[in-house]
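new request in #modeling-help
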Amino acid sequence: MYGLNATHDPALKSWVAGTHHPGTDFPIQNLPFGVVRRRGSSEPWRGAVAIGGQALDLAALHALRLVRGTPGDALEACADETLNRFMALGQAAWSSLREVLSGLLRAGAPQAAILQQALLSQSEIEFSLPARIGDFTDFYSSLHHATTVGRLFRPDNPLLPNYKWVPIAYHGRASSIGISGQSFARPAGQVLPAGAARPELMATRRLDYELELGILVGTGNAPGIAVSVDRAEEHVFGVCLLNDWSARDIQAWEYQPLGPFLAKNFATTLSPWVVTLEALEPFRVPWSREAADPQPLPYLDAREMRSRGAIDIQLEAYILTERMRATGAAPQRLSHSSFQSAYWSIAQMLAHHTINGCNLQTGDLIGSGTQSGPQAGQGGSLLELSAGGKQALPLTTGETRTFVADGDTISFRGWCEKSGYARIGLGEVAATVLPARQNAK
Amino acid sequence: MYGLNATHDPALKSWVAGTHHPGTDFPIQNLPFGVVRRRGSSEPWRGAVAIGGQALDLAALHALRLVRGTPGDALEACADETLNRFMALGQAAWSSLREVLSGLLRAGAPQAAILQQALLSQSEIEFSLPARIGDFTDFYSSLHHATTVGRLFRPDNPLLPNYKWVPIAYHGRASSIGISGQSFARPAGQVLPAGAARPELMATRRLDYELELGILVGTGNAPGIAVSVDRAEEHVFGVCLLNDWSARDIQAWEYQPLGPFLAKNFATTLSPWVVTLEALEPFRVPWSREAADPQPLPYLDAREMRSRGAIDIQLEAYILTERMRATGAAPQRLSHSSFQSAYWSIAQMLAHHTINGCNLQTGDLIGSGTQSGPQAGQGGSLLELSAGGKQALPLTTGETRTFVADGDTISFRGWCEKSGYARIGLGEVAATVLPARQNAK
C-alpha cells in the first residue's frame, strides 16, 4: 500500500514551464507514464512522463546516465517500445523512479539545464498503447449503470440477483484496442429491426460510448494462485480513461446467452497517460455501500480497504459534432460522474478475477465498466442519457442526439481534486466515428 | 481454397519407421505442426512436424540447409520458439513447405540418411503452445449442444431466437490456455447452493469438460476490413483439439447478463499438433442444414461453401480415473461425435467475427464450441451426458460420474477417415484435475 510522501507535497513546483497552472492535468505531483515518439516520425517508440504541456523522454533521460541503481534499472526498462518490462518490475521500482523523477523535475534541480534536451512538447508527439495488452477484461462495477441499463433490456428484472454479490465481468477483445486520436468506421452487424421476423445486416444505428476507467496490471499472479483483496492493489500499475464503444442494436440481438461480442469488439479507445496508483493516493475514499447492501463474501472484503477502497476520480464525457467543429464551438459536455460511486473497487475486481486461479499478466487491461452516477444526467453512455434512444439530447448547435452520429468526436476527461492537494489529471481520450464502409449497407 | 494434390496420395509411404500402421494419427499425408523440445531440457523451443511416432525437428532441418526459396523461408520461420512468424506467411508458404516436407519424408528420398539426425521420438519430447495466442474467441456452433444445454439452463426457452441467424460467440481468456499434459487445481468460485439465499465461496462441485475443435488464425485482417465468407478459410492455419474446462455451478450463478467468466477462464487445454486445412481437404462435406432452417444472411452464405463448408472430423472424449490408473485399465470412452454436425462452419465463424471490422491476428485461437451429436450419448460435455448432473454415468470400475472428480484425466481424440484416403489424426489432448487448494474451502 502506498502512503503520502514528498512526491505528493502540494508545495512542489517544477522548473518545467507551464506546470504551475492550477488547471493542468500534469503537475509534478502526477508524473503519469506513456509511450511516445515525435509525430509523424519513424523514431522508436519509448516511455515518457507527462509534465505540464511537455513530456520527459525516458529513453533520452536514460541515455544521459544520470540515474543509477534500482530507479536506473527501472528507467532503462522505460526506454522499451512498451512499458511492459517496467510494469513487471513492481511497486518498489515504480515508486523509486517516481521519487527520482520528482527530484529531477523539481524547481531548483541542478540537472534542469541538461534535462531540457530530453523534453518534448506534447503538441509535437504521438502516442502508442502504453502496454502490449495480453487480455482485456471488462467489469460492470457501477450499480447505477447496471440498474439503468438493466431496466432498458429487462424492464421486469433490472438488477439481477447476483449483482451485489459477484463483481460481474466478461472478456473483451485485445486486438481492437486503440489509442486516443483514433477514428474508425461505423460498424456493421446483424440487427433485428423492431417488429421484424428476420434480422438484417446493417450499419449500427445505435452506436454508443461507455465512460470507463482502464486499469493496467503491473505484476501478475501465477496460475492457480488467487490474489487476496488486501494485496490486490499491489498488482496495479495505474489507471487511464477507456471508451468501450458499443453498438446497442447489435448487442440486443446477439447478447443472449453468452454476452456481448460484435457489439463491443470493433473498437476500444484508451487515453495515452497512465496515472499511477501512488499519484492517486490523496484521493482515496471509503467504499460506496448502503446499509442494506449485503456484506461482501470474505474474499472480497478487507477491513482496511473499506475506508480507502474507492478513489474519487471525476469523469466527464463530451461530444464535438461536425457542425460544432465547423463553427469552432467547444465540445459540449454530456455527463459528469465519479469513479467513487462504483459498487466494486479495483481491489475487489482483481481479487474476484483471480479467485478461481485465473492468472493475470503484466499489461493486462481491466475496464471498470461504465461509470454512471446516481442522478439523471450522470449516465456514462448515451443509452442511459437518452433513455434507450427515446429522449433525444439537445445540443447547443440545435442538433440533437440519441446515439453517436458520423463525424462525432467523443472525448472523456478525468481528474482528481481535493483541498490541500495538487490536482491530478488523467488527460483525455478522444475518438471520431467515420461513416460506415460501402460494403456494409 | 486447397485442392487435392500429390501430398494427399494415399499410396505415399514414408521412410520413417512406424508410419505405415493404419491406425497412426500422423502418416505422411498429415504433417501437422507443433512446438517442441527434448523433455526436461532447457533447449530452445522450435517448430516440428509429426511423422508416425517421431517428430521432425524443423530447426535442425533448417540448419541442414537442404531447403531453399519460398519453402526455405517458411522453414526458417519454423525454427522460432512459436509458429507465429510461419503462420503469418500465409497459404502459399504453408503449402510450399508441406510439399517439400512430403518429398523429404517419402520412401526413397535420397535425404533420408541425413534427415535421421533431425528426428526426435515423440516419447522424448515435450510441447509448448504452437502459437503466441493474442485473443481467444469461443463459438457455440453445435445446435445439439446449444439445445441440450439451453434446456437445462432455460427449460422453457432452450434454443434462443438468434441461434440459427447469429454464430454466437464470446471472448475467452488467452493467459490460461495450456498444452496437453497439464494439470490444474479444481477452481473455487461463488456458487449459489440450491435453495440458499446467499452465495458461498467453494471449490466447484460441477467441474466439466467441453469437447471442442481449436482453430488457429494464420493471417489476420486489417481493422475495419471484413473477411468474406468465400475467402475466410484462407486465413486459417489449421485445427487442433480444445478442452474448454467449465465449472457449471459457478457459471449458473455468474453468467447473467454478460456471459461466462470465472466459470471458464481458469484453464483451457490444447492438443499440441496443429493439422493444416490442406491435410483435411479429403474430408470436406456439405454444411449441416435442415430444409426448415433459415437461409443464412448473404455475408454468411456462399454457394461454393455449401457443398464443402463442413469437415468430417470424428471426436471422442475419454476419462481415466485414479482407480483406472491404479488398476492399469484403459481410459473409458464417454462420447463420440463429429464436427460435421456443427451448425456453423469455420468460414462462417470467421466471416461473422470480422463483419463489424474486428481485426483477427496471427495466432488468434477460435474455439468451435462444444461438439455434440444429435443422439443421446453424443454430448460433448458431462453436463449433457448426465442430464445436468441428474443421471450418473456408470464407469467400468464400478465408479460413477456426474462431473469430473479429483484425479480424473480427461482426454479427447480426433481424426478423419474416408475410404480411399489415409487416416488423418489430430492426436490427443489430455489434462488432469488436482484437488482444490487449501485456501478454497
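bot summary: The longest strand of chain A covers residues 424-434.
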